[in-house]
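Appendix B. Raw example, untouched.
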Amino acid sequence: MLGVLRGVLISSLFIFYPYLVYLGIKEGMVWFAPLVIASVYLVQGIKAKKTAIRLNKLAVVLFIFLGTYFFQEEVAKFMPVFIQLSLMVFFGKTLWKGPPLIERFVQFEFPEIPPVIVRYCRHLTIMWTSFFAFNVLACIVLALFAPVEWWALYTGVMIFLLSGLLMILEYIWRHFYFNLIDLPNKEIPSVKDSIKNMAIHGKKIWFDVQES
């Protein structure tokens, strides 16, 4: 239960991070939000069992501290870039080392995955990897050239709206495509089943990919 609450708290912190930065810039406390994020990475680094993961976390902490000291606003606005870049690498890594990330989740729902679904999972993983790559570029451009209001709107609102829209469109396409290949509707996971699957197995897959 404590682990779930911790996960919810950390997720909420990253979700509301753009709003905290926006307030920090307006109130002259732009350093606050990055240091909160650095504290999260510091705790994770101290608790990490593997040396490589610990060093990576502590390197992030050092970078944030130094960057916040010398380039407060720039570092604060670049945090979403690193988050989207991490997601891009996380998804993309499974395309290289395999199996693709989406397939890893589907394996828990289908003991034997048909080759056509394996290809679909790979294409879907490529789509999400590309989406995060686009977000990296968008966040860089907005951080460097746009007003903080535009940056906060995209990183704090639009990214989540676009992610939701992408999931809805994929779910609609999934039903259409699976019917074309004569996969019975009863074998198509619902949104509820997919979310439940990710909640149950997400942590295990996260560590498996990190250690691969």
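End of appendix B.
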